[in-house]
User: Fold this.
Amino acid sequence: MQIHDNPALKAEARNLNFYYGEAKALKGINMPIYDKKVTALIGPSGCGKSTYLRSFNRMHDLYPGNRYEGEIRFFPDNTNLLSPEVDPIEVRMRVGMVFQKPNPFPKSIFENVAYGLRVRGENNKRVLDDKVESALRGAAIWEEVKDRLNELASNLSGGQQQRLCIARALATDPELLLFDEPTSALDPIATAAIEELVHELKKRVTILIVTHNMQQAARVSDYTAYMFLGEMIEFGKTDEIFIKPKDKRTEDYITGRMG
Amino acid sequence: MQPLTNEQIRAVIARGKLKDTIFKGLGLFCLSIALLVIVALIADMVIKGSDRFTLDFFLNFASRRATQAGILSAWVGSLLVMLVTALAAVPLGVAAGLYLEEYAKRNWLTHVIEVNISNLAAVPSIVYGLLALGIFVYKFGFGQSILSAGLTLALLILPIIIVATREAIRAIPAMIREGSMAVGATRWQTCRYHIIPYAMPGILTGVIIGLARAIGETAPIITIGALTFIAFLPPVPFTGEPPAGLFDWVMSPFTVMPIQIFNWTSRPDPAFEVNAAAAGFVLMVMVLSMNAVAIYLRYKMRKNIKW
Assistant:
């Protein structure tokens, strides 16, 4: 697990446990998230990768009976994102998220992207216009929608909707962007566009991405973590994980003998 | 078992289709009974009351002479009572439903509250009338006024609005709520920008169903002592005795459509039956047009809400 030529840390899970009621879904996870890198989480269904991802923006706090143990340290300020003293809303203001299925609001394209800014109290039309445009450019969808910002987001195709959701997350300049299987509901062409975008985005934001698709992890990520039954089995540079995994279970999964 | 021959397969299909046909006929029969009853009722009222469908009928007060009696105070009273009912019941019901769905913790207490909201919907309306007589009429001193009646009917339809609000909220997918919370919104911001607007078509349907029920209620209004013979209208804002205000009319005595109908049907003179039939038809039209408005608004609002 030791890597020496490491970039700066953006976040670090320390002995993280998570419980859905009585059921322990994450077991003692330790893992670094490096700044301005793409880290992929892979593993079979039910291994806890989405659960882990959703801990980073305290999404589990929305539902009763969920409990965290351990820490997720967030840098440079060394905040423990999971601390009860830290307001989950503050966490979500710093950590953006893109969901499995595109979930634009049934509002206009413009309002979808402006929403995060409005939530922060920004109502100045010019500021909103500027930020919405730059977010849409950042999500590589500006050219497609610039003439119809007032149309309903539901009129866009699935791939466009997902890029719109990325723009929505980018508009508020998150430090960490979580992707929860962002292409599982998309066709191959839309998937390629999202992957290219992820590659582009890591210049400005740290990315943590859950994926079912190992080729995708290999294509987009700098680091990969393999999870199994709620445990972190192996973490390392993506090349190393895919070329010579250290753990037998990782190798079985990657070579398709399991999962 | 031998594989079936083509003839056997056809026989099996024919048997199945026979049942299809039988059920189709049966269903159509049941449906037509319900529809026929409604059509017969309406037709009966129209035919019986046809002599009274004149402008005068709508613009005259109650009278001892059937041919001169009209429904002016009744339809104005009904509309004003509905206004008070809506103003009281909608904010209360929507807020209560929103709280239960979005804020309340799921524990035994909320469970007890939920069960009892359903129970409230089943309480006979006359019981609400008794409650209102004690509380609104005497305790609060609102008297036999539009305000008392509006608040009584508001209580009556509150459960309908709460249930409709909750169901409309539950139909909003979790991913919309999560999408809003994920950018750092508070619960209230999520409710204000998403939950309430997206639930609005469903809430509106509940409101109209509730109001349509309230407008036809007779028992609780009689209980609180609505008059049956009223030859004046509630004061128009700022026109009553000084100091005249905007809401003087809420304290005015009143009558409503169902009470007027009830009053006419209980008269010995058969000429009043004509009035009752005509007024019944008017009430029916009021209810149906409220439903029509609800359907139209829901259609218009839902057009833009797609997940």
The CA atoms of residues 47 and 229 of chain A lie 4 Å apart. The longest strand of chain A covers residues 9-20.
